[in-house]
Each structure stands twice: as structure tokens, then as C-alpha cells.
Amino acid sequence: MNFSRILLQASQKTLDELKSKIPEKAVYRQSVEAITAYRLKIVEENEDQLLAEKLINAGQMEELVEQAQDEIRLISKMAEWKAWEPLEEPAPPRQWEYFKKASLTE
């Protein structure tokens, strides 16, 4: 089975789905487009599947295909959820403070 070819197809479908379903300014779209375009370029430029796996450094080709297929399904969910829109209710005060990086001087 030619997993490189399958990954190329899945990557192109991912980019098409993003363009048709997710706004251009959404951080989710920007992130997924960047990762997908990077992987797509590596696979297009390297016929050697093992080399492509090594350069992508995110698993074996079969796993990369699975990741791409999972992302395609997630795009539909993200479009349904409209995760880029403002919250319906404002977040409580200090909601996100826990996630701030700790100061190095503390």
C-alpha cells in the first residue's frame, strides 16, 4: 500500500476542507494549514517514505495518514462548533491566569 500517496490525498483534502469551512483568520485554520502544508511539501519532495517519516518526525507513514484523516473529521466538528467566535458569556475573572507561564524570577 502506498501510504505516501494516501497522505498526499488526505493532506490536500485537509487543505480544501479548511478553506471551505473555517475562516481564514481562525487560529485553528492557520495552525492546521501550516502543519499540513509542511508535511505535504516533505512527502512531495521525498520519494523515500522512510526519509519523509524522519523529516516529519511525527510517526510512521501509517500514523501520519491516520492523523490526517482524524484532522479531516475534526474540521467538520470545528466548523459546527464555530470555535473561533467569541464566547456566548464572558469568561469569569481570572479564568485563564492558571495557564500563564510562571515568571522566571519567582
TrEMBL record:
Lipid bilayer topology: Peripheral membrane protein
Keywords, sorted A to Z: Electron transport, Membrane, Mitochondrion, Mitochondrion inner membrane, Respiratory chain, Transport
Organism: Coemansia brasiliensis
Protein family per UniProt: Belongs to the complex I NDUFA5 subunit family.
GO biological process: respiratory electron transport chain
GO CC terms, sorted: mitochondrial inner membrane
Protein's cellular compartments: Mitochondrion inner membrane
PANTHER family from the UniProt entry: NADH DEHYDROGENASE [UBIQUINONE] 1 ALPHA SUBCOMPLEX SUBUNIT 5, NADH-UBIQUINONE OXIDOREDUCTASE 13 KD-B SUBUNIT
A Pfam family of this chain: ETC_C1_NDUFA5
Lineage of origin: Eukaryota, Fungi, Fungi incertae sedis, Zoopagomycota, Kickxellomycotina
Official protein name in the record: NADH dehydrogenase [ubiquinone] 1 alpha subcomplex subunit 5
